[in-house]
Structure formats: C-alpha cells, structure tokens
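Deviations from the work plan: none for this task. Representative record:
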Amino acid sequence: MKTNFLFPNSWKIFGWLLFIMPIVVTTYFWITGGESIDNFLVVNTFAIYDDGFILQSGNGFFKMTKNAMLDEVLLVVCLIGGLIVGFAKTKNEDEMITHIRYSSLVWATYFNIIMMMITTLFVFGMVYFNAMIFFMISSLLFFIVRFHYMIYKFNKLNSDEE
Amino acid sequence: MKNNLKVLRAIKNISQEELAKQISVSRQTINAMEKGKYVPSTVLALKLAKYFEKAVEEIFDLEDGD
C-alpha cells in the first residue's frame, strides 16, 4: 500500500542527530549560565517583520536587521530533525505502523494542548515564557515519544507468540 | 471484527513469519490481526483472501459492535 509524506528509513539516524544536538547545546547554555546564547552568530539577517522591541533597530516590514541567529538556527534544526524522526519510515513499515503513527499523532495533539492549557492557567511569570518556548517543539516531542513507546509495547506483546 | 486466520494458517501449516512475507507486512501485524487487535485495510484483507484462496467473508466476520 502506498504511504505518503514519509522520509526514507536511512534518514532516521540523521534525524535523531539533528533533533538531539540543539537540545543538548541549548541545555548546556542554560545550565552553565555563562555566556549568553545571544552572543553567537550575530549577523545581518532578513526580517519579514521586526517590531524593534528587542533589537532596537526600528520597526518595519521586509528589512535587514542585526540579530544573533544561533538560537533561531538551533530551533529550526531541531524541528527538521524532529520531523524526520517522527515521519521516517520504520524498518518494517506497513499499514499497522501507519495506524500506530496516526493514533500517536492524535494522542500527542490532545496531550500537548491539555499541557498548554494547564500551563496557561497555573504558571505565571518568566517560567510561562520559557514554557511557551518549550511548546514550540513539544508536540513533535510528545508524538515521537508516544510513537516509539507504542511500537516498543507492540513488539513486546508479540515477542512471546508464534 | 472476528477472523479465522489462525485456523487457516494452521491448515496451510505456515508460520506467521512466512505468511507475513507472502503478503508483505510485518509478523507483528499478522499476530495483531489473529489476536483481534488490528482490523486490516481492504487491500490487506483482499491479499489474505487471495493467498488462502477464500472469499473475504469466509475469513472475516462482523461482530455485534461493528
């Protein structure tokens, strides 16, 4: 059966690397608390819109603005890696795996939105702002964890049978 | 949905692994179907019917809840 929108299985290891590396680097900056991540990769970059709130370079559409791009690059790399890990074919891809993938996606969507609602109602201050940054990758993260856990559970259930 | 895949497989005397290979799915999928934990797509149901040389209705049967 034809399965759409999936990456080749050989990409998966590469995807894990792209997904994990930015999380490790960001955590390193966060834990050491020394040099700010905003001191790296400071370049002139194109902005569709900049309100000038943080960068103080004036507001406007379609302009060049100076910004530390390391955090932006890490987030994009992390999202690309997450997409590949979640949507690369498994070694024994068949319609059952497709079924598990889709139900994990539904589960992760519910879980993510419930977590966002709880955070919005009961978390305040800077922690809430940081949580919002986490929620940029969390739906992918919850999906990846759920998908692999369900496959693990499924294989375990099967291993005793013939 | 019920099925008698396990019986048919016993009659043909082939393993889950072998059946899986014949209809190009994983062994886990065959096992899940035999245990009633997975309802196959129409394509897979027809492949199974073709392999066992039976009508689909002779392999699969609706249950009350379906």
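Chain B has a mean pLDDT of 91.
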